[in-house]
Amino acid sequence: MGFAEDRGTYWRGRYKIAPGKYGTVADDQGNTIRFRTKREAKQAADAEEAKVRAGAWKDPAAGQITFGEYASRWYAAQDLAASTMQNYRRHLEEHLLPEFEDRSLASIQRTDVDAWEKKEKALYAASSVKTWRGTLHLVLEDAVDDELISANPATKRRGRGKRAGRSRDRGPEKVVTDPLGILLSAERAALLSGRDDEFVAVVTKGYTGMRWGEIVGLETQFIRRAALRVEWQLYELDSGEFERCPPKDDSYRTIDAPTWLTRLWIGHIARTQPKPCSCHGYTYMFRGQGVSRTGETGAKVVDVARRAGVSTGTVSNVLNRPDVVAEATRARVREAIDALGFTRGGGAVDQAEHWRRNGFATWLFTPAVSGWYPKKAPQEARPVPVLADPWPGVPVRGRGAQARADSCWMPIARGLTPHGLRHTHKTRMEGFRTPPKLMDERLGHIDGSVQGRYSHVTREMRAELLAALTAEWEAALDARVAMCLSSPVAVLNALLLERMRAPR
Fold first, then answer.
1. Do 241 and 216 touch, CB atoms closer than 8 A?
2. Which of the four pLDDT bands, split at 50, 70 and 90, describes residue 157?
3. % of the chain at pLDDT higher than 90
4. What residue spans of 321-449 are helical by DSSP H?
5. pTM: predicted TM-score of the whole model, two decimal places
6. What is the DSSP letter of 253?
7. pLDDT tens digit string along 389-411?
8. 288, 354 in Cβ contact below 8 A?
9. Pairing, β 253-256 against β 21-24
10. Helix, strand or coil for residue 375?
11. CA atoms 389, 395, 399, 401: torsion sign
12. pLDDT confidence of 271, banded at 50, 70, 90?
């Protein structure tokens, strides 16, 4: 049994943990509890020894491991997709370690987590903060399972907090467009890139609802006579590399395609004659845009990130907001910067085997749908300068472009994103009264309900959807012909001529 030990000014409780090994009654922070009487110390020691015998005892010192030390062990033990590992690393390095790195696990209280969340929400979107708190909860939940702490302080208590005012966390409504909007956006994206690839890709996304990674990772071998097969996606990592991995949630599927769309794909392959990429050795439908126009050389942010073993976001924070990055991480990044001789603005973009998500969205898609280039230091947001002839206007580039232009584009769907085309495709199918089972199949969603199990897709359903998509495409071409009979985009110009010659 336990016993009380006189320490002069107080009593402490001692109990047997194992042969020759004794413990001292302590609080959750591992501090020895000082009892006023011998009786209190003896009772507490007996209670702890009873836990030891029952196998329910937990070492009070276990929770004294720091969050930073445990998070490093936790991350190293994970064996997940590279994209998931990258996200966890970014969450830890950029948002959790700066706040909790030197705190012991046992000292982190619910109020500390809530205070951190409130501080983050003042700087970042509520949806992002929710994701980071989810990662914190995951780490601390594993600490509970490892018996280092008794409860997870990141757990949200139900029914607590404000009920009114939650609308402050709402994001903007997702912008969608119509078939003509898809066509015009694809045309402008091709004009901005100076090639047909972006036209084919935007139309493909608008009429199949494929995810961005699935478009980038679409291999020519998966183009069928009346469909395409989604087997892989390319996920862009912070290191700048692309990981070839299964589609999200293992959503392998075959997407039926109208005849006009498969013809567009076959024609694109015939024109571009794609070759296997050097990073994976597979032949993809679409390729990136090549080297930087500036011809710059030197170390890039991605090179610094690789050498320091961190994400590019962490390097950016070290350069711009060093106070939010842990000291040890800052030191590694600074060492990499010095070793590589990195200077801001001195790097060129990589030879693009594939589209970069940010580059495509920022410099091609957003200007196409909004008519404006985004703000990018040192330049402010500005209209896309174009020469009005030929219609719809060819972007002017180079020094003095604004002065040489004689027009600019009006918005097509301001706020539309590449992912918004996936929402657009779902919305159009809703308008056709497409059965939910077929919509889920095209988008790669799973309906686990009873209704989902008992409904099935028929050949007639597929034919009806393809007919509706074809009718909308032809109507969009007719509307485009009414605006102008030709297009500077070669592939669209051929489609317009073919449409004008078609019997009515």
1. no
2. confident
3. 58
4. 327-340, 357-360, 366-370, 401-404, 418-431, 436-443
5. 0.73
6. E
7. 889 998 987 777 888 888 999 99
8. yes
9. unpaired
10. coil
11. positive
12. very high
**DSSP assigned state of 223:** B
Q: What are the Cα distances from residue 225, in Å, to 200, 263, 478? A: 17, 9, 26
The runs of H, that is alpha helices, within 146-285 are 179-193, 197-208, 212-216, 259-272
Q: Which residue in 345, 377, 358, 394 sits closest to 193, CA to CA?
A: 394
Whether 227 and 462 have beta carbons less than 8 Å apart is answered as: no
Q: Amino acid identity, residue 247? A: P
Residue 411 is encoded by which pair of tokens?
């918005």
Give the Cα separation of 474 and 463 in Å (integer): 16
Beta carbons of 171 and 125 less than 8 angstroms apart = yes
Q: Which residues pair with 16 in a beta bridge?
A: 22
Confirm if 417 and 365 have CB atoms less than 8 A apart.
yes
Give the percent of the chain with pLDDT over 70.
90
Write out the two tokens for 485: 């009979």
Q: Where are the alpha helices (DSSP H) in 122-235?
A: 126-145, 179-193, 197-208, 212-216
Of the candidates 429, 419, 414, which has an alpha carbon nearest to the alpha carbon of residue 464? 429
For residue 138 the two structure tokens come to: 């995951």
**Stretch (H or E) spanning 13:** strand 11-18
